[in-house]
Specification:
With about 325 residues, the chain is α/β, with parallel strands linked by helices. Helices cover about 35% and strands about 20% of the residues. The longest helix has 27 residues.
């Protein structure tokens, strides 16, 4: 009898465990909470992390300027977090480039918000070519805009430079040329000595070069150099996916990209294939703290550099 009771208890416990496990498994299939982390840079400037590219929130005298809106479904969490920081309305949204983890949240912003991008980015957002090599574009953003009847697409564009507002509220937008894409906007907050570089300087890593949207292995270092030369009164650089950097970090990143192109050019001249270079090239030890090169990204960049250096890519 005791044995039967014990067996029954074990069976009951086992069944209960299976039910709990099943419920936990079901819960695992549900969306995880969208947690937006806040990093305060200045009294009126914050970086919101999580859910895609780093978002900047600049609180002006009359409203809020937002830079980048993250992945699909993250626009509202961003807006909710902004309400915790200020009761002022969001008036302006700047997208630094076309990738889905920077623009998809646009659709959650009020229709009254002024959305501004570089003119090439507007074209790219209109077609939103998915980039299979872009790890930061996991969801094709064209589905977001199509599903929302064009809501969230830009209303205004600039070519090389645009200035918004005046005095302490001034925001300057710059475009220096091709790099990550052909529409990478730099967003300067001159009164705070801070610039948001986004994914043209996403962090200390091998850059993601989106050739489908105009990215360039040949031009990125020169484009970065123009930014470095322009922003002489900047102390802090907001990156696309990493921590804040300094002008010294940007200078080093320029050298890193120049060295990569030089190495690839020498390899091409020596007759090495794209696969050979991608399999053997390593980040030089002097670049301390750089993330290990992603194999697919590295091969993509070598192939693009070979193509841009002339003669097509050597397979």
């Amino acid at each position: 009898m005791k044995r039967s009771v014990a067996l029954g208890v074990l069976i009951g416990v086992g069944a209960l465990s299976m039910i709990v496990a099943a419920r936990q498994a079901g819960g695992a299939g549900q969306q995880a909470p969208k947690i937006v982390e806040v990093e305060k840079l200045k009294d009126n400037l914050f970086v919101l992390k999580g859910g895609g590219g780093n978002t900047a929130v600049f609180i002006t005298g009359t409203g809020v300027v937002v830079v980048d809106a993250k992945n699909p479904g993250w626009g509202q969490p961003v807006l909710d977090k902004i309400k915790e920081l200020t009761n002022k309305p969001v008036t302006t949204l700047i997208n630094t480039h076309t990738h889905g983890d920077h623009v998809s949240g646009n659709v959650d912003f009020p229709a009254t918000v002024d959305i501004i991008v570089q003119e090439n980015t507007k074209t790219n957002m209109g077609k939103m070519i998915p980039n299979s090599t872009a790890q930061d574009q996991t969801v094709p953003a064209q589905t977001i805009f199509q599903a929302n009847n064009g809501r969230g697409l830009p209303k205004r564009t600039f070519k090389d430079k645009m200035t918004l507002f005046k005095g302490a509220d001034e925001v300057d937008l710059y475009y220096f040329g091709r790099g990550h894409t052909n529409g990478d906007a730099w967003v300067l907050f001159p009164s705070l000595r801070v610039v948001h570089a986004a994914d043209i300087f996403s962090g200390k890593n091998v850059p993601l070069l989106d050739a489908n949207n105009g990215g360039s292995a040949l031009r990125i270092a020169d484009t970065l150099q123009k930014g470095y030369d322009t922003f002489k009164n900047v102390d802090t650089i907001i990156t696309g996916h990493s921590t804040q950097m300094t002008p010294a970090d940007l200078k080093e990143y320029i050298a890193f990209n120049r060295e990569f192109l030089s190495d690839v050019g020498a390899a091409k001249k020596a007759g090495k294939s794209v696969d050979e270079v991608a399999a053997t090239w390593k980040i030089p030890p002097k670049y301390v703290g750089y993330a290990p090169a992603d194999a697919n990204r590295l091969k993509n960049n070598v192939k693009l550099a070979y193509s841009e250096l002339g003669g097509g890519a050597t397979k």
